[in-house]
Amino acid sequence: MSDNAKKMAAEAALEYVKPGMIVGVGTGSTVNYFIDALATMKYDIEGAVSSSEASTQRLKAHGIAVFDLNGVSDLALYVDGADEVNRHKQMIKGGGGALTREKIVAAVAETFVCIADDSKLVTALGDFPLPVEVIPMARSYVARQIVRLGGDPVLRDDFVTDNGNVILDVYNLNIGKPIELEHKLNQITGVVTNGLFADRNADIVLLSDGKSVRTIT
Ligand SMILES: O=C[C@H](O)[C@H](O)[C@H](O)COP(=O)(O)O
C-alpha cells in the first residue's frame, strides 16, 4: 500500500465529476486525496455532500460548499474508499467509523465510484474486521447476538461516531454470503448499520498500484 497509489486512484475519479454537479464525498485517507483533487474543480462544481465531519472540514477548508443531503434529491456521483473490495465490487468499509453516513450517501447516489490502492482487492471479504455501528445502550446485547452468528466483536476503544454511537469491530465472521449477512446484522435491534456494502455495492472500482490505475466495472 502506498500513498501514491491512493492518490492516483483518487485523481482518476475526477473523470466522473461533471460541471454543475453536487458530488457525494466519502471519508478516509484515500478520499482526502480526492477532496484535494476536487478542489482544482471547485469553480466548476456546485458543491458536495459529505459523509463525515472530517470530510466536511476538509471540503470547506478548500472553499467547496457542503450541502445538507436532505436538500439534495438527485446525487449523480459518490466517491469513497474501502477497507476491502472484492471482484463483485462489494466492500467492507468503516475502518474510520464513518460507515453509516457513507451508506446513506451511497444509497442516494446514482453511481458509486470506489477508489483504493490495490492492496484492498481481496478474493473473499473478511480479513478486515467488520465494523458495526451500535446504539451505546445496546452494545452488550448486540455483542452477544453477534457471537451467536459466529463473530468475535471487539469494542473500538475511545471512539464515538459522528452520530454519537459506538463501533464493534467483528473478527472471524464467515462472510460467504455478504448480502445475506449484511441484512442479518442490520436486523439485530440496536445495530445502526454495518460496514458490509454488498447490497448497495460500488458501480465502478478504481484501483492503483502507484504506477497505473485499472478500472473494474
Ligand atoms: O469509515 C471509513 C471509510 O469507510 C473509509 O472509506 C475506509 O476506512 C477506507 O479508508 P482509507 O482510504 O483511509 O483506507
Strand order, sheet with most strands? 2-1-3-6-12-13
Assign the CATH class of the largest domain.
Alpha Beta
Task: Give average pLDDT, whole number.
Answer: 97
> And the CATH topology of the largest domain?
Rossmann fold
Our estimate of the beta-strand percent is: 25-35%
Number of spatially distinct domains: 2
**Shape field:** globular
Number of DSSP helical runs: 6
The secondary-structure class comes to: alpha/beta
- Share of helix among residues? 25-40%
**Cα-atom Rg, whole angstroms?**
17 Å
Low-confidence stretches: none
Heteromolecules bound: ribose-5-phosphate
- SSE arrangement, N to C: HEHEHEEEHEEHEEHEEEE
Strand count = 13
List keywords for this structure.
single chain, 2 domains, four-stranded antiparallel beta sheet, alpha/beta, binds ribose-5-phosphate, 217 residues, Rossmann fold, Alpha-Beta Plaits, six-stranded mixed beta sheet
Note the topology.
Layout: H1 3-12, E1 22-25, H2 29-38, E2 47-50, H3 53-61, E3 75-80, E4 84-85, E5 91-92, H4 99-108, E6 109-117, E7 130-134, H5 139-148, E8 152-155, E9 166-171, H6 178-186, E10 191-194, E11 196-197, E12 204-208, E13 213-216
Parallel strand pairs: 1-2, 1-3, 3-6, 6-12
Antiparallel strand pairs: 4-5, 5-11, 7-9, 7-10, 8-9, 12-13
Ribose-5-phosphate (R5P) is lined by residues 26-30, 80-83, 93-99, 102.
Task: Describe the protein in words.
The chain is 27% helix and 26% strand. It has helices spanning 3-12, 29-38, 53-61, 99-108, 139-148, 178-186, and strands spanning 22-25, 47-50, 75-80, 84-85, 91-92, 109-117, 130-134, 152-155, 166-171, 191-194, 196-197, 204-208, 213-216. The chain has two domains: 3-123 and 199-216, Rossmann fold, CATH 3.40.50.1360; 130-195, ACT domain (Alpha-Beta Plaits, 2-Layer Sandwich). The strands form three sheets. Strands 2-1-3-6-12-13 form a six-stranded mixed sheet. A four-stranded antiparallel sheet has the order 8-9-7-10. A hairpin with a 4-residue loop joins strand 12 and strand 13. Helix 1 (3-12) packs across helix 2 (29-38). The chain is of the alpha/beta class. The structure holds ribose-5-phosphate.
